[in-house]
Structure formats: structure tokens, C-alpha cells
Amino acid sequence: MGEKRGRGEMAIMTPEQVLAKQFRAKCRFKATVRRVIQNLYWLNDFEDQILNESVEKNIYLLTRRKGENTLSIRDKAILNKPVQARTELDSAYLYRAIGGLKCFRRYPTHVKAQLAAVTYFAYYQPGRVIFREGHMAQALYFIVSGEVIMSQLVYDPVLDKNVNQDVGRRGPGAVLGEVSLLHDIPRPVTATTSTNTEFLRLLKDDFNIVLKATVQQQWFEVQRALDMFTYFENWNDMTRRECCILAKMLAFKPDETIRGDGVGNKDYVYFVLKGQCRIIQHLYTTHYTKNGKVHYKIYHPVYGRDKESAITNVHEERVSTSKVQKSAHGELPRFGSADSDEFVPHKTHPLLPPNVELHFMQVCLLNETACFSIGENFVNRRVVAVTNVECLLIPRYWLMQRNIGNIWNRVKQYLNSHIPSANEVHQEFLKGRKWCHHEKETIDALLAKKQSVNHASMWDVPLFIRMNEKIDL
């Protein structure tokens, strides 16, 4: 009876109703196709691609999968489920899958586990507005891959209207929307995707339950660190909030390299909060013998150009004592004494010509409230922790945009003028060599002039030898 009733209904439908039904079916089909096309980017899973005989293509596929698609199809499928529909096994799997993502590294383990259980996956094509300036916040966004442009409405007196001005870019690992959610204020900027971008989205209610207390504690630590420096006294609350988003705090153990020699982030300015660190110069020298004396020249490696390097002539030998300068940025010694532990035994660099030696020279000491990597000369240098060190890292480009009173350029000039250059380091090296040579010659001369005294007497000869030799007593 049901089938007959259905057929009867179809029979009594008017032509207009039939056309409307067909049109709705066509629209649903088109919407489904468009949705598949829009999400085709993240639906690609490189695990399903079969490797072939081309080594180059295989390497490209594997590195692309590792770099661009951190999340697999299974991860994204579970993240698209409603939170209520996720099982305990799903939550445990998500924690293992996304707990190590760059955007989650700053949070404790228990917070990571909770975040993995309540976040959703989201994908947007280039040009999509994620949130707009002035709107109230409804979610927090973690960037998994892609890039987002942050823009702000600024009044242009020439055009006599507000125009969008880019204020920064965010990449993988960045977090969008903390300020508005934490302080319950409208969005201060507009976020727009510039590439295919994947996000993990955390709703406002889940943020208040899981993440708000942790973010407040991290912000309090950054605020306390900013209060240690006079550079930030004139910043308003909005600037401080933005700094709390971009800044990060790192800790280093003694003898750990903080910056330089391929370690650290060259795009960040380092502010020392605790401990002491030293700047070490990599001094390259060549030597030759003339009239029985060893002479040294400084060697300047040229990277990415000619193999031959400019060699500057200088006089003679060794590293010396000198005085320590005090400053607001820490101690700036013109190299401590030769018997201190600042001198590491030199060695020949394996990639340099055989007659080139590499010496590690301490240039200066940096104490609390010092800063470095602001754009000063950092060629062939590294910063190493002397004690346990804590540093506040702030992006350099962002600081330069807030260069009130040209403060950062003045700090850069101060560091360049007070920290010895490579040539000054080499001159101290020669003075030290001369001192060692003079010390050795003086000791040898004193030992040569000293007359040897023989305190042995006849009574030191054993009695039986004296009797056999008939020595008169």
C-alpha cells in the first residue's frame, strides 16, 4: 500500500512541483561537488601514494608529506567528529597524533590531552577571512600548516578613509585569537588566509574550561619579564597584549649554545632574564715564520663566493689581560686574563685550508637585563650560557615596528660600539701571544743563569765502597 501511495503521489504532482524537486536535487548535488572540491586539498593523503623507481620523486613525496600534511586522513576524520561522538580511544589517539604539534609545545601534558579531545579540524582556501576586526571572538585557532595575514583598519589622510594595512603574518605553530578570548574584547585585527591553510579550532566555551588558566599564567610570566626592562615602560596595554602573544620564554643550561653557529632563531631579539652568558668569537688565523719568530694574520672566510679570502696583515703574537668595562648591558671585558678559562684550545677547522687555525675567544659577558641579536655584528660569533639562563624572545620585525624614540637602533649602535670587533679581538690575541713568548724567554733565562749547587759529600758514599777504594777519612 505504501508503494502504491507513493506512486500515486508522484502521479498527482504538478509539472511545476516536479521541476522544483529536480532543481533541489541538482542544487544538492552541486553543493556536494563544490564541498568536495573545496576540501580536496586536505583530503589528499600521501600515505596512499605508491613509491616508484624515481628516487627524486620519492624523496619529494616523503618530504612533502612530512612538511605540509602533518595530520593524516584518519586524524582529520576524528577531529571532524562532534566532541560528544568521540570515544576514549579516539581521544587517546588524537593525543598521540597532535600532542607533539608545534602549536601545542608550550602547554603542559595534561592540557595537551584535554586540547586533543575538544579541538576541531578546519581548512580554508586562500583569501578566506577567518575573523574580522571588531567582531566578538567565538573560537581560538591553531595554525597547523599554511600562512595567515593579519591586517588592521588604519585611517589614510590622503584618501580620507580607512584602509587595510598588513600588520604581520602568522605561520605554522602560531595561535590566533588569544587576546579577544582572554579579555572578552572585540577582535583587534582581521585574519585572512594567504595560502591553503589548516587549523585546529577551539570553541570559546572549551577555551574557558581547558586553556584560559594556562594562558593567563603564561601571560603573567611574560608581563613580569617585560617589567624588568625600561625599554617597555611606555607601551600601552594593547601593545603588551600583542607582545604576550608573540613572545616566548626559553631556558638554557650551562655551556649550552643560545644563539649562533646554526643554533637559535636569528629573527628574534633575546633579553636575558636570569643568569649569565658569554659572547665567543670564532677567530680564524694563519701563521708563518720569519727570522725565527712566528707571525699571525687574521683570516676572513668568504661564504658563498671565492674560495680565496682577504687576509689582513697584523704584527706578532698572543692573548692578553685587559680591563673590564661595566655597562647597563652587562660586563664588556676586553678579554680576561690569559690564565682564565676563557681560552679554549685552538684547533684546525676541517673545512678550511690546512694552514688556518680556529681560536675561540671570549668577547664579553652578558648579565641580567642584557639583550642581543637585535641586529648587531654577529659574524662568526655565538652566545653560550655560563650559568642557568632564562631568556625572553620577541620577534625583531615586531619590535622595529614599535621603535619609539629610535630606541632599538640606538641599542644596536651601543652594542656595536662597545663589543670588540674581530680585528680588536685579533689584536688582543697577538698581545697575549707576545706575553706568553716573553714569559717563556724570561723563565728560560733565569733557569740558565742559576748555578747548580752540589751538596754531596764524602759521607754520602757507602762505607763498604770507601773501604774497598781505600778512601782516606
Textual characterization of the structure:
By secondary structure, this protein is an alpha+beta fold. Among the domains are: about 75-215, Jelly Rolls; about 230-300 and about 325-340 and about 350-430, Sandwich (Jelly Rolls), CATH 2.60.120. The chain is about 35% helix and about 25% strand. It contains 14 helices and 21 strands. It has helices at about 1-10, 15-40, 40-45, 55-70, 75-80, 90-100, 110-120, 180-185, 205-225, 235-245, 395-400, 405-420, 420-450, 465-470, and strands spanning about 120-125, 130, 140-145, 150-155, 160-170, 175, 190-195, 195-205, 250, 255-260, 270-275, 275-290, 295-300, 310-315, 325, 330-335, 345, 355-365, 370, 380-385, 390-395. It is elongated, with a radius of gyration of 35 Å. The protein starts with a helix and ends with a helix. The relative contact order is 0.09.
What's the Cα radius of gyration? 35 Å
Cα-to-Cα separation, first versus last residue: 150 Å
Question: What is the name of the CATH class of the domain at 229-301 and 326-340 and 351-428?
Answer: Mainly Beta
Globally, the shape reads elongated
> Which strand-content bin applies to the residues?
25-35%
Overall SS class: alpha+beta
* Number of DSSP E strands: 21
Question: What is the makeup of the main sheet?
Answer: 7 strands, antiparallel
- Uncertain segments of ≥5 residues (pLDDT<50)? 65-69, 304-350
Number of helices: 14
Organism: Photinus pyralis
InterPro entries: cNMP-bd_dom, cNMP-bd_dom_sf, RmlC-like_jellyroll
Protein name: Cyclic nucleotide-binding domain-containing protein
Domain Cyclic nucleotide-binding: 103-211
